[in-house]
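Entry:
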Amino acid sequence: MKLKNKHVLITGGAKGIGLATAKRILDEGAKVILWDFKEDDLSSTVTDLKEKGHDIFSQVCDVTNKKQVYENAAIIKQKFGSIDILINNAGTVYTGYMLDRTDEELENLINVNFTSMIYTIRAFMPGMLDKNFGHIINISSASSLTGAPKLAVYAATKWAVAGLTESLRLEVKKMGKNGVKFSSIHPNFLKKGLFEGTKLNFLGQLLAPGVSSHDQVAKVIVNRAIKLGFHSPKVPWIMNQMVLFRALLPSSLLIKLSSFYGLYNMMDDYKGYKDGR
């Protein structure tokens, strides 16, 4: 898909992967709509982008608030018509053993990382179906390829995102709406920001290197998902080996391999988000 003059909505767009993706898409001549629940961050980002000559429309939106999602979507439809690309990027993480977290924390994790995507897709997918054109891109994770200690519910949400994306891809095909595309993006852990301090041992870093920057993910979203239509690109590409391992190796051997490259201890020096924000 060519991006010039396309309308693109990015959730969690004030910083991180969302902002890096917005910058790349703006450089391609698209019209970008940013959502974020942090009003100050969103305002600062929009001001900075406008000072650089970009045309941005933004809305404060907590994507876990169904009413707010649908109300904001109605404003967008009135102002722009249907959007062409939806990038569901908003996400969070709570680390630690599952039983050490509260019900409220885990419910928030599920709502931000997964349930919110159901709301946004239901809000914007009908417009794409009407014109048989559009692309919905959901940010999953390498955690959708393998489980990890101290990330149980986070990993579960990312597996759910992958399953949702694949199932909807088949649904629109069954509907005969081949112009509506779905992709899930599977980045390994970022070395800074959300997953700062996450670290495998030497062998693990060779087999599953971390992501060096938000723009590394943004480049894959734009070049491989949007332009080339890849269904589930991994970041970096070597993470595709995890799919091969799961297909070929028995689970008992996968568990031993996980221990061998340091998966059990990778969260021990975690310095990223402590409270889901």
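The beta strands are 7-11, 31-36, 56-60, 85-88, 134-139, 180-187, 234-235.
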